[in-house]
Specification:
This protein has 153 residues and is α+β, with helices and mostly antiparallel strands. Strands 1-2-3-5-4 form a 5-stranded antiparallel beta sheet, sandwiched between helices. Strand 1 and strand 2 form a beta hairpin.
Length: 153
């Protein structure tokens, strides 16, 4: 089983503390690490497709629509200057979107003098345990995102 499938199983079992909401094509979760405050993921429900082009057109359109709604809700909930979207897959082939709310100075002097993608910031700093939200912070993040999702759905 893959990491995303494991996280989805936790959602189904009611044991994933980062779970926010189920949509038709996927699950909305808050990221485990919050260097980029409001970092959210949208996990595709199925592991049977690993590329967008493998999906039937109707399902792909719905997945993209829902991801856009999640991104909009994330932006409204956390007030970034810009949203960054990533659908990668070399680490975990299971389709999942990374939605990064971006703010001025959030990568320090890394990248091109502080400008660049989230991956310009050192991974060991981004995934430092000090960036894990407390239970209270996590509940606050989830509540804010749920409010905005409710307005859009």
């Amino acid at each position: 089983m893959c990491l995303i499938c494991d996280r989805i199983e936790m959602i189904k079992n009611g044991t994933n503390p980062y779970f926010v909401r189920e949509l038709e094509t996927g699950y909305v979760v808050i990221g485990d690490h919050q260097h980029f405050r409001g970092y959210t993921l949208f996990l595709y429900k199925n592991h049977d497709k690993t590329e967008l082009f493998q999906m039937e057109l109707k399902e792909r359109a719905k997945f993209m629509e829902e991801m856009s709604i999640v991104a909009e809700a994330t932006a409204k909930a956390f007030g970034p200057v810009k949203m960054n979207y990533e659908l990668l897959g070399m680490g975990d082939a299971h389709l999942h979107w990374h939605l990064f709310p971006r703010r001025q100075g959030d990568i320090g002097e890394y990248g091109n003098k502080g400008v660049g993608p989230v991956w310009s910031y050192p991974m060991e700093k981004m995934y430092d345990d000090r960036n894990r939200p407390t239970e209270e912070e996590l509940e606050d993040l989830k509540a804010k995102l749920k409010v905005e999702l409710d307005k859009l759905l």
